[in-house]
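Hello,

Our lab assistant flagged a job as stuck in the queue for most of the afternoon. It eventually completed. Since we weren't sure the result was trustworthy after the delay, we are filing this so someone can double-check. Below is the sequence as submitted and the structure that was eventually returned. Let us know if re-running is recommended.
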Amino acid sequence: MDESLAFYQAILGMKVTFDGPTDPTEGGHPHNYKHARQTRRRVSLSPGEGLPIPSLTLTSHPGEEPYGSPILLD
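-- returned structure --
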């Protein structure tokens, strides 16, 4: 998460509009996970001050073990 944030902020100049814990089922898509998550950190970014749209949301699950394989980009 921290490396992604550094990229979006330093390289693309995006601004963080929210960074904090949220309900792990927020967004209404619990079926996207193989098992129920206990934590969720959501970070929302915007292209600049006063520009809420378009926005980007990054999600992590602090303290929980990852599963699966990373997506490989060709």
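-- support follow-up --
The delay was a queue issue, not a problem with the job. The result is valid. The longest helix spans residues 2-11. DSSP finds one helix and three strands in the chain.
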